[in-house]
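#struct-queue
[09:14] JT: dropping the first one here, sequence first, then the structure tokens:
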Amino acid sequence: NWSGGKIEGVSAASNSLVLPPTASTSLSGGLHILRARTWDNQGSVNWVGGDLRLEADAAVDNRSIFTATPTIGVVLKVESDGSPLARFHNNSAGGQLGLNGSGGLSLIGNVAFDNGGSVDANLGTLRIESPGGDFGSYSIGAGGTLEFAPPNAVARVLTGATAISGGGLLRKLGQGTLEITGGYAHSGALRIFDGTLNVSTPAPGTSFNDVGLQAPGVWTGDDDFTVFQLAWSGGQIRSTVAGTSIVVPSIGTATMTLDDSNASAILSSRNLVNQGSYTVNASGAGGDKIWSLVGGADIDNLGGQFEVAASSSNFYFSCIGPGSRIDNRASATM
């Protein structure tokens, strides 16, 4: 068992630390430093305490079970000294990285994280800032939260056949980009707070049960979106292909909130089709609140209820460029 301290080698390319298939170990106590050595995990690791730092291009090659079980208030970190080849590899040959504690696990942006296996945020908050490749899968338990927080100019692309599944909370943070080009089977809440989330799956359309978008977040992609509950507080909903739609179905509700802290929202190259209930709340003592329709985007109020409540501030629709418009159909109410 490893309760802190340093395990060193001369070169991570030639020196290894092997935990064989029949073995198990526990990480606890203080800081764990792996330096100039590759940890080949074929056994079972239970990580309860103390961060893991990879130095001098050290790496973890996880080919079996690696589970973090931090208690509430404890956030375990995988970090590096900035060496360029430091990485945590969740290997496609049996790699299972799990979070099953009420605390958190963070993969810091200075260490690469490559996922070819399965990542399970069953309980607690798993945060991924790292760059790296991603053709494995992520699942989020009912008591779990999965956060992608790539920094500016970093794009993480999820290409797995079922890239994300489960009923827990998915959050997009950080100024970078998260692209989901694999399968999307996530049924829980989605929150987009910063950067760009691009959903462009192999399917023509994707359904979302509960979405919250807040400035400066951007939600885009080439899928048609169906949203049963939408809370939009500034930011942008866009499309990479003109003419795609975002549909609020007949049993759906959408609320846009514009105030002095989030005074504008943009719908770009995507048609909003409202078949349910859509409410815009505009308030604040500052300037005008503006919803801009750009690049041929339009609002099609198709049999639904569309209401604007401007209590203490003027609210404007701004149609920019050809094709942007608002249609209130015969069976709809605005």
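[09:21] JT: and here's the second one, same format:
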Amino acid sequence: RQIEINARLHDRAAFANALGTLGLVLSYQGRYTEALRLLEEDLAICESLGDQRLIAVAVGGIGIVHLHEGRFDDALKDLSRQLSISESIGDLRQAAYALGNMAAIDVQLGRYEHAIQNCEHSIPISRSLGDKRRLVTDVGNLGAILLNVRRHNEACQYLLFALEGDRELGDLPGLSYRFHSLAELLLEVLTNESAQVLEEVCECLGIPSNSDARESAIRTAQNYARESLRISRELAKPDTLFVSQIELIRIDALEGRIEAAIKSLDEMSLLSSQEDQLAEIHYWLWRLSKSENDRCTALTHYEKLLSQAPIFEYQKRLAELRGEPVPQSM
């Protein structure tokens, strides 16, 4: 409706903006061809107007569609162009958006050091703008990325900062993601790290030093995952809803409730039709039961997912399922 109004008023800049907004909405709905058509029309109008700020916004929108499609190389080219234009005209806000989206792509590709650099570049920009919401997002994303390179203490500090910021802002989607990331931090440390690392992370989280660190960490992880699940249900937020359920199942397994964990995963598999969720469910079923059927099922799902987008996490899972060395980064 807004597009029609702007067209009638001959406000070409507003018309282009409306096209770009609708294009992004369509992209989030998975309607990528329609989204790209609108965003490319948006870009053409902005270029004809010669407005560099609008051009940067339009190019960034095209990059987001390519990101959603899994066309990461194309997305990085678009976002690099958005960053270059934004920096050349001093538009720090658009520069920060470009850096944040580039970091997200780097994570998908397993280029964690690049992702960290982009976040570290974006954080002072967001701080200089006085944009609390953007700063909290950047810091929280950096904390989550640091988990991938085992910088647990730093990850803990950044995630706690972001958690407090989300609370101050009343950002429920942000809180659901932050609680999930903190639960993931504890699960990774409990599963893969030494008692000393666990003690350091517990100290960062304020868990009393005179308690049983492992038991306290499990309880804290459980509380974080439950809070993420509660908020996700309230918001009908499917991404953190799923991962928080998986985290609670992993906690069951850590405490020796293997049969209960397997039962929960079996129930989830009956309710899910998404390829990525089914891959994750059968991966954990294989991890807990060592079932060859679940291993093969997970392999099939991950092979299909990897054929659609070169996501590094899929490569890691495939290597593990095949009994090959698991890469840590690209």
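[09:30] RK: nice, looked through the second one.
[09:31] RK: The chain has a mean pLDDT of 93.
[09:31] JT: good to know. Residues 32 and 65 are 7 Å apart (CA to CA).
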